[in-house]
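hiii, so i know i said id send this last week but things got crazy w the move. better late than never?? heres the sequnce for the chain we talked about at the cafe, plus the structure i predicted for it. fair warning i was half asleep when i ran it
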Amino acid sequence: ADAGGTTPAFHAYSPDSYQAIANATAVTVNVSNERFDSDSAYDTSTKRFTPQTAGKYFVYGNVVMDGNWSAYARLFLMKNGNPDGAETLRCHGSGDGNDGVHCSGIIDLNGSSDYVEMAIRHDGGGSKNLWNSGQVNFFGGFRVN
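okay and structure toks below
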């Protein structure tokens, strides 16, 4: 870890493939490609960031919908898998056209078992896709204190 206090840090993004999001459930976004992961704290199979250094972490995420979802898209940066948890960050977007939803904020992590993952939910009926081009679906974070 660096003396400046910004690690552990990571940034991950989705592969260039569509991801189908089922109706009315929080689905973990497939951000399985790492741009960097300073302390090997991001697991590309579970898509969870579990830093082993306690502190306050700035976390951020972005998703882009493919086409018109005709429903609000709810993006969650979930602490310990709970979309309704007190520290889970929740952001909403319109889901019209190729709109995106971005979410960011600060979450306390205990440095042992606490983790953050990014999930998206819609209530538009049926299955909806995330956009598959470039690195538009991404998730990252770093320690700030």
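btw The chain has no helices and 13 strands. thought thatd interest u
miss u guys!!
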